[in-house]
Every structure is written in C-alpha cells, then in structure tokens.
Specification:
Length: about 425
Amino acid sequence: MCAKKKVHHVVRRPGNRLGDPDIEIPVAEDLVTEPGAPVREGDVSFYSREYPLEAHFVENSADREWLWSQYTESFAQWRVEHEKVDTPLVEAAAVSGDIPPHVEPDPDPTEPIRRKARELGFSEVGFTRYDRRYTYASKKKWVKFQHAICLAYEQEYHGTQKIPSEEAEHTHFGTYTTEGAVSLELADYIRSLGYHAQVHSHSDSSAPYIPMFISAGLGQLGANGQLLMPHFGSRGRLMMITTDAPVKYDAPVDYGINRFCDKCQVCVVRCPSNALSRDKLWWRGTLKNKVSYARCRPVMGRYDGCSICMKVCPVQKYGMEPVMEHYVETGEVLGKGTDELEGYTLKDKGHFGPGEKPHFTPEFFQIPRGRYEDWVYEEFKERLAAGEELTEEELAEFGDEVREAVRTKREATG
Ligand code: SF4
Ligand code: SF4
C-alpha cells in the first residue's frame, strides 16, 4: 500500500439533492492536470468548420433500425409504450424556443434558475456559453440562443447496477422521460422570468453536450467516454436548455479525473469488446480516450444497451468523494479487482468476474452500418453483383425501403 498522498486542492460542490450538505472532494497532487479538459481550440474550430458533426440518429440510422431486431418481444413492446409517452415531450421541446416570454425580464436570473432546476430534481446545474462549434449539421439552424444551462438528472442506483439488463434499460429510458418533462417545466419558469428558453431534448440532441458540461464545471471526461460527475459519475442523464437570459457562467474544475482514469483503467479493461482505447489521443481538438463505435455498437445492440463501462466505474458506484478520499489515503482505486465493482453477467454467456471476459467471433461485429438508405442500397448492389435475379416484388420492396429511408431522414433533419 502506498503512503498517504498529498492533497493539492479540495473541490467543494453542493449536495446531490436540494438541502443535502455540500461535499468535499480532495484532489491528490499527482492527479492534477488542468480545469476541464485539455483542448486545442484551433483544432476544435477547424474540425467544426471542415468536418461538422452529425447526430447519431442520422449518421447511424442503419444500426438504429437493426436494434429493434435484437429486442425481446416484451422489451420491444415496452419501447413502443415508452415512445408513446416520450414523443410528445420531444415534440414540445422542438418548438419550445419559439414561445415568447410574457413578463419584463428579471435583471439577475442565474440563481433563481439554478434553484428552480434543483427543486425540479436536477442534481447538477451549470451555466456556460452554448458552443456552436459542436452543433450537429442538421441542427445548426434550429439552435436559437447563446447561453447554455447544463442539467443532469440522476439515474436510479439499484436498477443501474443490474447493467446489462432490460431492467437497467427501463431505468435509463425512464430517467429520460422524467427529465424531459421537468425540463419543459423549467423552460416555463425561465419564461416567467422574462426570457426565452429552448429545450434540447435527450432524444433529439443538438450537439454532443459533454464539452459544454465540462466548461460549466459539472465534471470531467472519463476514459469510458462519459462525463464523470461528482455524485454519480456517468449515472446522470444530460439535458440542456439554451436561453437569452443573461446568466453568469460557471468555470471548469479540475476534479483530478483526467489523470485518475489513466491509473484506474477499469472500464478499459472490463469492456467486453475492447472498444475503449487504453491511451488518450487527440480527437477533433480534445485529448481523450476514444470509443470504437464499430466494436461497441454490436455489443450494445445485443446486450440491452451494454453500458458495462458505466457499471464498473467506481465513480458511478461509490461517488467521487469516497473514491478520491480512498485514493489520497491509499494510492489505490476503490473497489478495483473486486467482483462487486468489476463483475457482470451477459444473458447468454454467464458471469464474468475480474480478469474474465467473453469471446466474440468476427461475425458478431458484422451489423448494418452508416445511414439506413446507404446500407439498403449497398445490400441491393451486393445481391445484383452476386448474380441474383430479383423479382418484381423485391424491386418494389427495395423502392419502398429507399422512399421510407429518405422520408425518415427528411423528418429527422428538417
Ligand atoms: S457500452 Fe459496452 S461495449 Fe460499449 S464501450 Fe461500454 S463496455 Fe464497451
Ligand atoms: S472506470 Fe476508471 S478509468 Fe473508467 S471512467 Fe471510471 S474512473 Fe475512469
């Protein structure tokens, strides 16, 4: 066991729920890097201009369709019921920025908004500039306001520890529905202070939100590619509201995570498909561990959203305060090497404790890729190239599929 570490600084954050006492996170000297994330601003601007991002549901529509073929009958039914509840929330969010405020503006809205968000159940609330460089190509005209309110709602603990399972997926999707509804309430409240509020729905994101959450001081990027926040790591679902209310911005924080992940590596080692890079690399202007989508998605799709990289993270399981206290006391990662933290069960393969992993064949990773319309076309070409004679009926079916794909894409991108 290492000698006790020297503490460089202590991060003080509000308690998880409104009224809970503040927490204090000690950051050991050897974990200090910089507040937020290492970023090369010029590179972020370059990639944004030359290679703008696109929403996952547009870029990867082929595997989104495929997901449904992997669901059990009962889960598919559950998803259909979930969509019935969720869709009106997404639609209300889409037009929320057009609703005018109806009173004179409050000159100092920051703390009233923060308090209201906490009353509505958000554990993490922060303010920053909405960074348009991250906006998805199909959302560039939609985003109206310059200030971002970053919000995280805690996903229930016990359901999450059952990852990967349908029960954990109920918890995950259920959290989105809850925060989708309370975000609309928060937007109403912001209008009652005299300002516009545009809700960026979880199911219709305008951008990857993590860089802005980091700027607002709500956490740092973990090696699992997720935002690690003080109370529950990445077990918080992110939501954003943009506004013209003149909010005061929060500052990024160094929680010690940038370097802690280099030492921990539990998610990297435990990922069943080795989808996480061990070392950090520069990607679109940010220094980070990179997730391989091609290796991750087949596991996510077949094993109830997978998320083992969330489940095995000590910050998710124990919270940042005890994890960092333990590191200061011992130089070790709380829970590392235990089945309680690292163990997981895959429904058709059994339980895997520390040091044990499943094996997948190369065929396992072959799933539909890219945009659905491109994938349908590629499949069609391959059949022709293989000399298959297609019937009139099959040709008509192909035409219907392409028409449906183009219609869905138009709806998604406006
Ligand atoms: S979701 Fe599963 S497969 Fe994907 S990176 Fe996380 S642990 Fe690996
Ligand atoms: S499991 Fe460890 S390495 Fe992975 S995100 Fe959590 S703290 Fe970082």
